[in-house]
């Protein structure tokens, strides 16, 4: 296999972090978006590569549903969310004709598409490239790790929810990381309790502490517990708030930055930075 092209396109990317989850719907994409915005807030230049072929939700979360992929001489150009071009996004969703279409390709075609996303996007200089992967461990994950092999990603952030089933699934994810020698940067427990909007009391709707327990059990870094935030749901569901594209994105970034979860994600971003030390 020839990784030359991957290396060229990623040659100015300092750190590559994969975001993984054992099962769908645990908040992997929303964690990716919020982590990226927190890294941006810490002065980093960030890219999000959304290769979740089952449900590419990053464009919706950043109000980029109608964007198309543009080709330049160096390769595909990421869509920049902010006016300073410090947060770029490339998503499989940009290839789909509309937001209700899902990808029903078979294995080899999926692998080809993932390869193209890893090799054909020209990111330019980036501090962090966050890769939002499909849920579970599949051939697609193997393809991603294989194509990035020579590039040596810094590691994976595992996202789980407190329910045991999800923790069991992440355990499989952990085995996958060990098998393919992908370091685990740490675990995030998402939807960890619900903080009341009125009295700030945190109620554990599901069993709690699964992520922390698993981190301890496996000697891994626990990056943090993120509660359910109803404002986040509103924000993610109401991304069509403004007609003007640039304002819409700036407004969304502002909303994420001023959300209740922002301080928690800022701490997580700092932990990720310290795990991915510059050479
Ligand atoms: N901390 C949170 N508080 C409230 N809602 C959340 C939180 N995290 C995620 N959600 C909501 O849960 C839903 C699933 O989140 P998301 O799409 O990020 O999950 P995912 O793991 O990427 O899913 P998929 O399997 O489709 O890739 C979304 O509607 C999102 O708004
Ligand atoms: S947590 Fe407190 S304020 Fe919130 S609903 Fe319950 S009792 Fe009311």
Automatic annotation (TrEMBL):
GO MF annotation: an example: ATP-dependent FeS chaperone activity
Keywords: 4Fe-4S, ATP-binding, Cytoplasm, Iron, Iron-sulfur, Metal-binding, Nucleotide-binding
Residues the entry annotates as binding [4Fe-4S] cluster: 196, 199
Record GO biological process: iron-sulfur cluster assembly
Pfam families: ParA
Subcellular location: Cytoplasm, Cytoskeleton, Cilium axoneme; Cytoplasm, Cytoskeleton, Microtubule organizing center, Centrosome, Centriole
Gene Ontology, cellular component aspect: axoneme; centriole; cytosol; nucleus
Superkingdom of origin organism: Eukaryota
Family: Belongs to the Mrp/NBP35 ATP-binding proteins family. NUBP2/CFD1 subfamily.
PANTHER family associated with the record: CYTOSOLIC FE-S CLUSTER ASSEMBLY FACTOR NUBP2 (PTHR23264:SF19), NUCLEOTIDE-BINDING PROTEIN NBP35 YEAST -RELATED (PTHR23264)
Quaternary structure, from the entry: Heterotetramer of 2 NUBP1 and 2 NUBP2 chains. Interacts with KIFC1. Interacts with NUBP1.
Protein name (Swiss-Prot/TrEMBL): Uncharacterized protein
Organism: Furculomyces boomerangus
Taxonomic lineage from the root: Eukaryota, Fungi, Fungi incertae sedis, Zoopagomycota, Kickxellomycotina
């Amino acid at each position: 296999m020839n990784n030359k092209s991957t290396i060229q396109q990623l040659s100015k990317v300092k750190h590559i972090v994969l975001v993984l989850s054992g099962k769908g719907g645990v908040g992997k994409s929303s964690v990716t978006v919020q982590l990226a915005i927190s890294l941006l807030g810490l002065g980093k230049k960030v890219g999000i590569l959304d290769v979740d072929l089952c449900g590419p939700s990053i464009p919706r979360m950043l109000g980029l549903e109608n964007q198309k992929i543009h080709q330049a001489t160096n390769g595909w150009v990421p869509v920049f969310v902010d006016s300073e071009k410090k947060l770029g996004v490339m998503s499989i969703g940009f290839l789909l004709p509309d937001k209700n279409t899902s990808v029903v390709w078979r294995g080899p075609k999926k692998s080809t598409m993932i390869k193209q996303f890893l090799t054909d996007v020209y990111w330019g200089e980036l501090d962090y490239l966050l890769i939002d992967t499909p849920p579970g461990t599949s051939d697609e994950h193997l393809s991603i790790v294989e194509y990035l092999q020579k590039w040596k990603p810094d590691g994976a952030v595992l996202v789980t929810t407190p329910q045991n089933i999800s923790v069991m699934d992440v355990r499989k994810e952990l085995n996958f990381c060990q098998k393919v020698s992908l370091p685990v940067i740490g675990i995030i427990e998402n939807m960890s309790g619900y903080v009341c909007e009125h009295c700030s009391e945190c109620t554990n709707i599901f069993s709690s502490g699964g992520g922390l327990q698993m981190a301890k059990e496996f000697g891994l870094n626990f990056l943090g517990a993120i509660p359910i935030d109803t404002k986040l749901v509103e924000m993610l569901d109401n991304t069509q708030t403004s007609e003007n594209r640039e304002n819409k994105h700036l407004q969304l970034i502002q909303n994420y930055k001023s959300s209740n979860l922002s301080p928690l994600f800022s701490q997580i971003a700092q932990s990720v930075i310290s795990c991915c030390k510059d050479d």
